[in-house]
Amino acid sequence: MVKPVRAYKLPFMGQQITVKILPQKKMTDNDLLGEFLLDSHEIHLVETLPRSARRATLSHELFHAFLAYSGYNQIIDGIHPNMEEALCRAFEHCIGNMLYYPSKIEEWLNGE
Ligand SMILES: [Zn+2]
Questions:
Q1: What total number of domains does the chain contain?
Q2: N or C: which end of the chain has fewer CB within 10 A?
Q3: Domain of 34?
Q4: What's the confidence (pLDDT) of residue 1?
């Protein structure tokens, strides 16, 4: 069990996702800035991610969670192998920074 730097419990689509900020070496892939793990209902954000990018990255990972929990990931899987990632990136860049999160998670993302 990896001890997170910090963790936040986020209710989402009837699940409780634990958002953790972790050192890069604890991510499943060293190139990742964020990741969603369906089995453990966790989102990991790398601790070196600038605070200004945390909201958009969280939005990106929550879109992965949305696709998984809704079953859309299985529908789009056969269209193109990069379809899910492309959708999550589009969501992150177009909408991610415009989303409002409850003030508690905004403060948490900013390390307050
Ligand atoms: Zn992604």
A1: 1
A2: N
A3: 6-109
A4: 53
